[in-house]
Amino acid sequence: MDAAYTVEQLRAAAADAVRAPSLHNTQPWRFRLHEGGIEVVVDQARRLPASDPSGWGARIACGAALYNLRLALAAAGTPASVRLRPYPGEPDVVARLVPDLPRRPTPAERSLHAAIPHRFSNRRPFWPDPVPADVRWQLGEAARAEQCWLELVIGTSAVSAFGEIARSAHRVLDRDPAYRAERAEWTRAEPAPDGVPAASGGPQSEPQDLLPQRGFGNLHRAPGRDFEPEPLVAVLIAAGNTATDQIVAGQALQRVLLTATDADLAVSMLSQPIEVPSAREQLRLSLGRFGTPQMVMRIGFGQPGRPTPRRMVDDVLDLPVSQL
Ligand SMILES: Cc1cc2nc3c(=O)[nH]c(=O)nc-3n(C[C@H](O)[C@H](O)[C@H](O)COP(=O)(O)O)c2cc1C
């Protein structure tokens, strides 16, 4: 056999992979060692039937986990060559990674890898300080390096128009009892290895809010503590909307998030306008770009966030019987 990854390499890289974001922190991934390659597989049992009927969210999450896996392997000096969706008969296998020629990690790989444990969703109001121009450029470069485009929504009227699309998508989703039940089921008041801890949810929405907050938990904000008046809204766009495009977008999302973390920025994600097809189309038209919006981020400077829980690494590994 050619060069092969070991169980130890898989275990170490998977510990970074599981820090990726996922819809309602469902962690819909498994990692397996197969003929010397590491494979990332969508765990369909953890896809949300009401909130993610098409599997878009699970593929974005697996793409983000794949990016962490790539970084972890590169940072260890054992970078991977990656094939997306390698088996036509097994569409849930998102990627297969086999060892490429060993080399030292680049400084960028080192710093993005170091950012993995410090990236959290921060749903609280940010400070009003603007994101500097050079950092905006770096965020765009991060998306481009992963074959995506990051469109920054600039100016009060563009942000208000986006807010309107996002709020109307939020209302459409919230009218569906199955969607509301799923969100409640995955909001955790007690410690749990998955789901969104109520303490990590943002404050309850108020009528003056520009952007809709997906309500996890019951936090209220201090009087006068409004959201930043001009949030930096960034839309991640992929070439299209095939399953492969979504995996590509997941990797780009994670690279943008880690680039933001490395620049001491806070980020929250808003996917309501992606999840409602008519809102997504409206968003696409309003941006006037080719391609398909795959995620929206609110980016700024904020108080440090906190990590959310993950399942144990051994719970997400599938090892050959001889290696158990
Ligand atoms: C596909 C996808 C969609 C998401 N949509 C939202 C959203 O609409 N609102 C939100 O607050 N967080 C959203 N998130 C963030 C997740 O809730 C978050 O990643 C998860 O709870 C884990 O927390 P962490 O990001 O702090 O690690 C989304 C994440 C993914 C991958």
From TrEMBL:
Stored InterPro entries: Nitroreductase-like, Nitroreductase/BluB
Highest taxon of source: Bacteria
Single annotated GO MF: oxidoreductase activity
Signal peptide start-end: none
Protein name in the entry: Nitroreductase family protein
Source species of the chain: Micromonospora sagamiensis
Lineage, highest ranks first: Bacteria, Bacillati, Actinomycetota, Actinomycetes, Micromonosporales
